[in-house]
Amino acid sequence: MIKRIPSLIILLWFASALSAQTDLYGNEWISYDQQYLKIRTAADGLYRLHYDELADALTAIGTDIATIAPDHFQLFQLGEEQYLYIEGDGDGSFDPGDFIEFYGIRNDGKLDTRLYENEQYQIHTYTSLFTDTAVYFLTWNSDPGHLRMEQLANVLSDMPEPESHYEFRTLMINGSTTVLNHGASYFAPGRYYLEIYSSKYDDGEGFSETRFAGTTRNKTLSTSNIYSGEDAFVPTLRTAVIATNEVEHHYTISFNGTTLYDTSFTGYDFKKYEFSIDNLLSSNTVSFASLNGSNDYLRNCYIEITYPRIWDFNNASKVGLRLVNSLSATKYLVITDFNEKSTDPVIWDFDDHKRMIGTIVGSNTEIHMPYDASGNRIWL
User: Fold this and answer.
1) Per-residue confidence (pLDDT) for residue 19, from 0 to 100
2) Tell me, what CATH number does 338's domain have?
3) Do 154 and 183 have their domain in common?
4) Which range marks the domain in which residue 246 is found?
5) Which of 12, 194, 296, 303 would bridge 292 by S-S if both were Cys, CB 3.0 to 4.6 A apart?
6) Can you give the CATH number for the domain in which 183 is found?
7) What's residue 24's pLDDT?
8) 274 is a domain residue
9) What pLDDT, on the 0 to 100 scale, is given for residue 2?
10) Is the pLDDT assigned to residue 200 strictly greater than 90?
């Protein structure tokens, strides 16, 4: 007797397989009847596409900029629509002096996560294994509801007390705070099996600092302008260590002379750590000590310190931060030593999707955010 599988089961299986295949390709965002301009970015920051350069790029693909209304523009990155601010979009035409502004990033390792059998095997997502360049696609259509930043006026009246501090991150990747080290000696190949390595992206595979054994490696990170008021949150240290070979290991992790972790074990191991720290200085030493001889090979991978910081930007021209949870219903920011480079300082709120222009008052930059932006990620 032949048993027939109900057609509903077949249809459900086919729909599930098709869904999995579609998710794999991730091309659902593409409209094949539209044109796209490719934009590459290799650093975090605000980018502007000015009228002349956009007009030239459109002309090169046979499109007249005069035929595109400003509210028709869309921007995508990794298949997700991005927020835009368009100067001069109120009159329905893109004119000389107008521009498109967006926040672009250096490519990170979030897409690389899919290569690993277990996402916990990935060393970090700060950088990509393959390229530092992210790609954005600008397109246009008349559909409603494209994502836009809301422009707010900076009204310096009825302000609360200035915010005392914010959350700031200092980061060292692959042994450096300034460059991305990607030489062969900085690559950790992962766990090995009978003196061979897996063809899969394995536990602890990726870029780290070079390996060392039988010594202490000291790394210095600056955490300037620390806020130490009663309402300051406790700083945190995040790091990771790879014990690279199948021997007996003994290592410690210390911060400014205080041992945070001491462990002994046998065999390969990749482990991530997070510590609360109470001895933060303006200049800090993080120490990784290999204590079991010349075969006790280790790699330190990254160091991230998150701490409360006062509103002194140390002459920086761009800063990413997170606002703390203050009691004020609106937020008043008074920033010192901000290098505006003779331009109006721009602030983007990534979480509430609002944009403002700061006001230079004497030697300070002042911003009154007329809403409760507690905990929001901010870029200036």
Assistant:
1) 47
2) 2.60.40
3) no
4) 167-309
5) 296
6) 2.60.120.260
7) 55
8) yes
9) 38
10) no
Quick check: is 17 in a domain? no
**Which one of 148, 180, 215 terminates a domain?**
148
Sheet of 331-335: strand order equals 331-335, 364-369, 359-361
Number of folded domains in the chain?
3
Question: How would you class 38 by CB atoms within 10 Å of its CB: exposed for 0-12, middle for 13-18, buried for 19 or more?
Answer: exposed
pLDDT tens for 279-317 read 999 999 999 999 999 999 999 999 999 999 999 999 999
d(CA 322, CA 341): 23
pLDDT at 179: 79
Do 268 and 340 lie in one domain? The reply is no
Phi, psi for 33 (deg, rounded to 5): -95, 5
Take residue 151 and report the two structure tokens written for it: 């422009």
Domain annotation covers residue 2? no
What pLDDT does residue 23 have?
54
318-352 confidence digits (pLDDT tens)? 999 999 988 899 999 999 999 988 888 999 999 99
Cβ(125)–Cβ(113) below 8 Å: yes
Residues 6+ positions from 370 with CB-CB distance below 8 Å: 152, 155, 330
Instruction: Check whether 249 has a pLDDT greater than 80.
Output: yes
β-bridge pairing 150-151 and 354-357: parallel
Residues 155 and 93 in one domain: no
| 65 plus 130 within the same structural domain | yes
Question: Which H, E and C letters describe 164-215, residue by residue?
Answer: CCEEEEEEEECCECCCCCCCHHHEEECCEECCEECCCECCCEEECCCCECCC
* Gyration radius from the chain CA atoms: 25
Tokens for 12, please give them.
Answer: 């459900």
